Amino acid sequence: MTDNPDTADSQPPMWSRRAVVVLSGGLDSTVALAEYLERGYLIQALSIDYGQRHAQAELRAAYAVAAHYGVRHAVADLSELGPLLGRSALTAHHGTGAVDVPDGHYADESMRATVVPNRNAILASVAVGFAVAARADVVVLGVHAGDHPIYPDCRPEFLTALNTLVKVANDGFAPPVVDAPFLTFDKAAIVARGVALGVPLELTWSCYRGGSVHCGTCGTCVERAEAFTVAGHRDPTRYAAPANTDTLAIDATGEAVCSR
Ligand SMILES: [Zn+2]
User: Fold this and answer.
1) CA of 126 to the centre of ligand 1 (A)
2) What spacing in Å lies between the alpha carbon of 101 and ligand 1's midpoint?
3) What is the pTM of this model?
4) How far, in Å, is the centroid of ligand 1 from the Cα of 146?
5) Which DSSP symbol is given to 182?
6) How does pLDDT run across 62-95, given as a tens digit for each residue?
7) Is 119 helix (H, G, I), strand (E, B) or coil?
8) Ligand 1 centroid to residue 164 C-alpha, Å
9) Which pLDDT tens digit goes with each residue over 172-218?
10) Fewer beta carbons within 10 Å, N or C terminal of the chain?
11) Half-sphere CA count of 161, side-chain side, radius 13 A
């Protein structure tokens, strides 16, 4: 279990608590930012360009979200890192060795092509360094339960191990707690929480292909559309092609569920 920043004895008073939110510009991190604003934290958003295919679309969204909330926003440019991270569909997108983003459902085995080696440990390490320097109390990640099957660096044991590392690596320098407030949420629950918090979800970006509108057929587009459907909220996203949510079915309780 991660320390709960709201109950830990050593935490400063609420009015002075600071959180560094790793803001990709996606739905999850944007709602996480709103969640920590709601909890009364001073927010410093941090976006990281690690050479991902959809970096420009993500950064546009992150700028828009940060501007909407009037929070400070920094961008770390690690774009030269991308080519060193092998043949992930997210980072191998130039030249003859390019790997296409697969179409299909987010939970499909084919989505393994989108795994970037050690990605969240890299991003979190940058954010933790920033947070220690900025004397922030918490680093906030937007990872959630829907990520767990494919992405090992989105699972609870990753977060637990990361917090142990952060304490050891920053001993004596007020190490922040790394929190993932939606670690046990599915995507639909995040949509619902975002709607409840009044988050401008239309500003957020999910598509792994980048561009000016969501493609509607890659795993993250399908997952996004599905989440709005399950949550019962209108999807404000513009898709180039209708997102395929045919994999949804209605179970005996009347709940929409994914059939894969
Ligand atoms: Zn897409």
Assistant:
1) 27
2) 9
3) 0.83
4) 17
5) T
6) 999 999 999 999 999 999 887 787 766 566 566 6
7) helix
8) 35
9) 999 999 999 999 999 999 999 999 999 999 999 999 888 899 999 98
10) N
11) 9
